[in-house]
């Protein structure tokens, strides 16, 4: 077996960089997951040392992960190596879905005439998996898996819009912890099934290559959450 001294210096540096990148991604995904599913709630303090122990990485990737989450609006950073999970008021929730409705609606309209058959097939597969996950596990248990699948669903459409500027805007758009939906008056199961029906309509509009329908379907999907937020 080669000793590390036998490995070229430039390769050693690459290995270290790859290891750090993986650690940052692990920390980012673990902290984000905990916020999205409600393990870490609004106002909870985030200390680098405790998070590093919890996740099993050093404090440097924790710091970088928190910076990414701060840019997404899920975390508020303070001095002295600590921060806290962002608090979302009903006004915050309304603003997020209003902005997403406008930008993602526009993206879906552009995507309708540009998206590939392979991407549409991928959207159908993702939606099928989301529905199966919900039916098998129910609301609370399915959140973690649903979040990843739903994020990919929306990201595929944003990418298919073929507008790097728009894609950057959507990639940095504010996300919301799933726990905020528990405050809606509408039953969770009913709202979740409507979401799946709306996803199916978006896919149908994209398959028909109808930009007006696709834009309306995506905007309606997100604005329906805005109405719920306004009523909360």
Characterization of the model:
There is one protein chain. The chain has 232 residues and is mainly alpha-helical. It has two domains: 4-85, Winged helix-like DNA-binding domain superfamily/Winged helix DNA-binding domain (Arc Repressor Mutant, subunit A); 90-231, GntR ligand-binding domain-like (Four Helix Bundle (Hemerythrin (Met), subunit A)), CATH 1.20.120.530. It is built from nine helices and three strands; from the N terminus they run αβααββαααααα. The protein has helices spanning 9-36, 48-55, 59-72, 90-112, 117-137, 139-160, 164-171, 188-207, 211-231, and strands spanning 45-47, 75-77, 82-85. The chain has a three-stranded antiparallel beta sheet. Helix 4 runs antiparallel to helix 9 and helix 5 runs antiparallel to helix 6 (139-160). The longest helix has 28 residues, at 9-36. The relative contact order is 0.13. The mean pLDDT is 85.
List strands and helices in order, with pairings.
Layout: H1 9-36, E1 45-47, H2 48-55, H3 59-72, E2 75-77, E3 82-85, H4 90-112, H5 117-137, H6 139-160, H7 164-171, H8 188-207, H9 211-231
Antiparallel strand pairs: 1-3, 2-3
User: What is the number of helices?
Assistant: 9
Shape: globular
State the distance separating the first and last CA atoms: 62 Å
Which whole number gives the mean pLDDT? 85
Low-confidence stretches: none
Strand content: under 5%
Count of strand segments: 3
Rg, nearest Å: 20 Å
Question: Which CATH top level class of the largest domain fits?
Answer: Mainly Alpha
CATH superfamily of the largest domain: GntR ligand-binding domain-like
Biggest β-sheet strands, sense, barrel? 3 strands, antiparallel
CATH-derived topology of the largest domain? Four Helix Bundle (Hemerythrin (Met), subunit A)
Number of domains: 2
| Secondary-structure element pattern, one letter each | HEHHEEHHHHHH
Structural class: mainly alpha
Strands side by side in the biggest sheet: 1-3-2
Helix content: over 70%
Q: Judging by the overall fold, what is the CATH architecture of the largest domain?
A: Up-down Bundle
